[in-house]
Every structure is written in C-alpha cells, then in structure tokens.
Amino acid sequence: MKKSERLNQELIFIHRKKQFNLRDLMTEFRISKRTALRDTIELEELGAPLYAESGKNGGYHVLPHQLRIPIYFKETELLSIFFALQLLKNPTPFPHSYQQIKEKLAEKFSVTSLEELETVLSYEGVRMPIAVPQLEILYQAILAQHQLRLDYQKAQRENKIIQPVRLNYRHGFWYCFALDVQKQQWRTYRCDKMSNIHFFSEGQKYTTQEIQQQLVQQQRPYCFEIQLTVKGCEMAQQQLFPNMTIVDSQLKGTYHEKELDFLVNYLLMFGTEALILKPRKLKQAYLQKLQDIQARY
Q1: 139-162: b or e for each residue (b if 16 or more CB lie within 10 Å)?
Q2: Which of 35, 166, 208, 274 has its CA 20 to 30 A from that of 186?
Q3: Are 253 and 245 in contact (CB under 8 A)?
Q4: Which residues form the WYL domain (predicted)?
Q5: Based on C-alpha coordinates, what's the Rg of the chain?
C-alpha cells in the first residue's frame, strides 16, 4: 500500500476509533513502530485533532470537535464519485445541484476530461416528471426527528400530521415512509402530492426494529399469489414492494383491504405476463377494472 493511501486509511481508522495507540496502527496496517510514529506525526499535520496521554494505559485520543478530517482520493475513485453523482441530475433532498458539484470536481480534472467522460459513461435513470421542492424539508425533518403538518392530495385534499423516517426514489417518483401521527400507522406517501408543509412538534426516535414490530401489528390479513412468466418475473424484480416476494415464478404477498385498488393497478402493468391465482376477491376486482377500462372505449 502506498504511503498516501495508507495515511488516508489511517485517518478514517482513528476517526472511527477515537482512542488508539501505536500498537493499533502497527497491527491494523502491518507497519513497524517507527513507521507508526512517523505516520502519527503526519496525521496531525494533515489536521487530525490528536492529543497524547502517557502512562500504562496512555495513547492517542481524537478530540471531540467538529473539525472534518480531509480525505484524499485517487483519480479512479474521483471518477467513480463523478459517475455516482450523475444521480443528482434528478431532484434530490440536497440543496446542491449536479452542476455545482461537477464544477468542484473539475478543479481536480481538466474540464475537457469530465466532458469527454460524460459522452462515454453516463447513468440514465427514470426522469422525474415534475419538480419536488418538498424533499429538503422532509430530509431535514428526518434528521431532526420532527413531526410535520401538511396537506396531502389524493382523490381529495387531506390535512395530515406525519413523522417522516425515510425517503425512497423509485421509478421516477420520490416516496416518503412516515408515521401517520393521528392514526398511529405507518404509511408511504408520494412527496410531490404534499404541500403547505410546516413544523408541528418534536417527534421521537424510531429504530428499524421498532418500526418492523409496529408494521407486524398493522396486519395485512389478505394473501395473494400471482403466476408470472419469465418476463413477468423480470418486471416484478424492477418494482418489488416490501410486502412482496418472488418464489418459484410466483409473486406472493399480503395486502390490506384499503390497498386492494392499488394492488389491482399494480398488476395491470403486467398484462398477459401475470395470472392471478388467489384470492377470488382480487380476481373479481381485477376483472371489474378491466371492464371499466373497456367501457371507456
């Protein structure tokens, strides 16, 4: 490992460990005591906030302040970052545009190099059909564990109080997984359907385990099974929801009665690549939807 790369890895190592001694560096990076001592001096010169403690249990401590340790990247790593950042061409929860970050990366490369790279290597995802200015406030509320009051547009406009915990980008739309505070149920909302978002109150922290336990209590009592063709399996893999699995070319899952219409619309996209095996109620709802579509023509 080159010295510059080793120092970079050591910066990350001590930032995570908070307290270490020379033996830790020697063991982790397979270096001699003399090299470990030289590296520690260079880490301080690079901005690592260290102080030493003598004695039997002494060593080095990383000062607990907000100084951000500089991280150094190889050119290939920067190119990987540039490729990943092309996702920012779509709206994101962050207030910085793809163009702004591209200009900063251009300081490390020639502009021609980045422009040439864009012509031979690019990410083409599903484009957002509309702007989503709500993302930043939702993202900040997730970090601060705040509850929000907002209007949500479905068939009718509804006023809701939610505590958002996760944002998810899927097939051209941003979704927010949040607790409906009034109903005390977890729901997924489309972000572009939200408006008039305001701070409501302090929320509480929910661990992944707590959320999963509460979701189990929100039982989806109905089960469904769908036979899929090979193409149908590929389509399902591209848009598989948490309550669904694919087993032996069958799409299986559970749903709540209120989700029946959503499930029918979801299955319509498969066309002849899917066959509903059960339950009967889902079959009937699916056939009724087809009749309603046919009646329009």
Answers
A1: bebbeeebbbebebeeeeeeebbb
A2: 274
A3: yes
A4: 135-197
A5: 26
DSSP code string of 2-67: -HHHHHHHHHHHHHHHSEE-HHHHHHHHT--HHHHHHHHHHHHHTT--EEEE-STT-EEEE--S-P
CA-to-CA separations, 245 to 150, 177, 224, 233, 271, in angstroms, rounded: 33, 20, 11, 11, 19
Residues of the chain with CATH 2.30.30: 135-216
pLDDT at 228: 95
Instruction: Summarize the confidence of residues 120-127 as an average pLDDT.
Output: 61
Contact 187, 259 (CB under 8 A): no
Quickly state the pLDDT bin for 229 (edges 50, 70, 90): very high
Q: H-helix or E-strand containing 68?
A: none
Tokens of 111: 């502009």
Distance CA 102, CA 91 (A): 16
Higher pLDDT among residues 169 and 292, named by residue: 292
The pLDDT score that the predictor gives to residue 290 is 95
**Distance in Å from the first CA to the final CA of the chain:** 69
Q: Tell me, which fold does domain 135-216 have in CATH?
A: SH3 type barrels. (2.30.30)
> What pLDDT was estimated at residue 56?
66
pLDDT at 79 over 60: yes
Using CA atoms, how far apart are residues 211 and 190, in angstroms rounded to an integer? Answer: 19
Residues 6 or more apart whose CB falls under 8 angstroms from that of 73 comprise 81
Q: Which helix (H) or strand (E) holds 267?
A: helix 260-268
pTM value surpassing 0.90: no
pLDDT at 199: 92
